[in-house]
From TrEMBL:
InterPro entries: Ald_DH/histidinol_DH, Ald_DH_C, Ald_DH_CS_CYS, Ald_DH_CS_GLU, Ald_DH_N, Aldehyde_DH_dom, Aldehyde_DH_Superfamily. One of its GO terms (molecular function) is succinate-semialdehyde dehydrogenase (NAD+) activity. Belongs to the aldehyde dehydrogenase family. One of its GO terms (biological process) is gamma-aminobutyric acid catabolic process. Residues 19-469 form the Aldehyde dehydrogenase domain. It comes from the Bacteria. SUPFAM superfamilies: ALDH-like (SSF53720). The active site is at E245. It comes from Marinovum algicola. This is Aldehyde dehydrogenase (NAD+). Keywords: Oxidoreductase.
């Protein structure tokens, strides 16, 4: 029997308790983790510990902090095989994807440490000879980081590294469905960072609500729009700064002069990594009429070549859906799209692969709809589902791409430089890709606009602005 993991880190002395929640391999249904959830008293205690940790951690120089954080990242890297295995067991993604996620996470984190070393104040001339004006930046204090289940390493590190590098203490609340990776990240810092500089609280929505309502100094959240609105409302009432990284309904435009084969390969990768359970997944393909049929045939052939199965099976290229609730949502939205006139070109049903017949799988699905109001075009499905629409004329392509409430990322495949430049200026997305998929580079801002996000993005130097406060200091003589 798997031992019960504590409700918080640092763990209470001589802690022993019963499990409030079990995590299961979504492909095989096996119990892979047992966890206790934090009580209100646990939350209060952790916040007190974090406050003390902030005092010790913020007293170090930024170079001292970045040196220690670099050592922490090296510890994490050394645990890559175990960490990837835990991610696969709880989240379901293929082991190769989990390993790649850790590698990207570490590359981004090390870039962020470089940004942090040079992020700071600015000295400007004063209004009289010998006077100086200085813009200072200071850490905020205790930061609450709330992360989802789809990227159990990447998303936490995007919050932890800049917040810690800036001198804050951080309390991490991971998803109850994938807490193992987060606990390994936090434990890797033990004995390296001051106690309380990095804490963790396990629990579901009730625990997260208690943390959001507590006296923290900033909140960084990644998750659904609905939950983000609730957190934003509470944070606003408490005058606590908040960064919200929310969903997406990301489109790719396939122009008639695009190099089609590599474009289709890139679309498949961007759509079906993590079984489509990623906010940056391409979920809408907008194809010019002249290439529509070729795009349709090419997508179907590639989708039917994906191999569903357990994440630890080396042949698997499409993992399971992480939770039963998410599988039910995908099924419901596909049915709703059909009722509203969408045509299922391939897939559209729950899948039972021979290697995991009871697993939480959904077929790679392609829906055809030229109705911009169809649920499959408007709603974030968060699964292995693509919609295919046709267009004529550049104006129509851009109008369709922008015709949702979201604004996270988007792509265009074209050989026409004028159309590419126009798309870069007119697509209503925080991130825009020309002739490749929607994976961001390690040194670029990860940012959404409209219903996809609020505040500075994660990754990139501007992220550090969110985790610090700005002060104007004047010195005469």
């Amino acid at each position: 029997m798997t031992s019960v993991k504590p409700p918080v880190l640092p763990a209470p002395a001589n802690w022993s308790g019963t499990a409030d929640f079990e995590t299961r391999d979504p492909a095989l249904g096996l119990v892979v983790g047992r966890y206790a959830f934090a009580s209100p008293g646990d939350v209060t205690q952790v916040l007190e510990i974090a406050g003390k940790g902030f005092a010790a951690w913020s007293a170090l120089t930024v170079n001292q902090r970045c040196d220690l954080l670099g050592d922490w990242l090296s510890r994490i890297e050394a645990e890559t095989p175990a960490l990837a295995g835990e991610m696969t067991d709880e989240q379901g993604k293929p082991l190769a994807e989990a390993t790649a996620e850790i590698g990207k996470s570490l590359r981004e984190a090390r870039q962020m440490l470089g940004f942090a070393r040079s992020h700071g104040g600015q000295t400007l001339p004063g209004r009289a000879p010998g006077w100086s004006n200085t813009i200072l930046r200071r850490p905020r204090g205790v930061v609450l980081a709330i992360t989802p289940w789809n990227f159990p390493v990447l998303t936490p590190l995007r919050k932890l590294v800049p917040a810690l590098a800036a001198g804050n203490a951080v309390v991490l609340k991971p998803s109850e469905y994938t807490p193992a990776a987060a606990m390994r990240l936090v434990r890797a810092a033990e004995g390296l960072l001051p106690q309380g500089a990095l804490c963790l609280v396990n629990g579901a929505g009730e625990v997260a609500s208690g943390l959001v309502a507590a006296q923290v100094d900033a909140i960084s959240f990644t998750g659904s729009v609905a939950t983000g609105r609730k957190i934003g409302a509470v944070a606003g009432g408490n005058l606590v700064p908040v960064s919200l990284e929310l969903g997406g309904k990301n489109a790719v435009i396939v122009d008639r002069v695009a190099d089609l084969e590599p474009a289709l390969d890139a679309i498949i990768g961007a759509a079906f990594q993590c079984s489509g359970q990623r906010c940056t997944a391409i979920s809408r393909v907008i194809a010019q009429t002249e290439v529509y049929d070729a795009v349709r045939h090419g997508l179907i052939a590639r989708m039917q070549g994906l191999i569903a199965g357990p994440g630890r099976d080396a042949k698997t290229t499409l993992g399971p859906i992480t939770t039963q609730a998410q599988l039910d949502r995908i099924t419901h939205l596909v049915r709703a799209a059909e009722l509203e006139g969408a045509t299922v070109l391939t897939g559209g049903r729950r899948l039972a692969p021979d290697s995991a017949p009871e697993g939480l799988f959904f077929e790679p699905t392609l829906l055809a709809s030229d109705d911009p109001a169809n649920p499959a075009v408007q709603d974030e499905i968060f699964g292995p589902v693509l919609t295919l629409s046709r267009y004529d004329g550049d104006d129509a392509a851009l109008r369709l791409a922008n015709a949702t409430a979201y604004g996270l990322t988007g792509a265009i495949f074209t050989d026409r430089l004028d159309f590419a430049r126009r798309a870069m200026n007119e697509l209503q997305s925080g991130m825009i890709h020309v002739n490749h998929g929607t994976a961001p580079d390690d040194n670029m801002p990860f940012v959404g606009i409209r219903a996809s996000g609020l505040g500075t993005g994660s990754v990139g130097p501007s992220t550090l602005d969110f985790y610090t406060t700005e002060h104007a200091a004047y010195q005469a003589g």
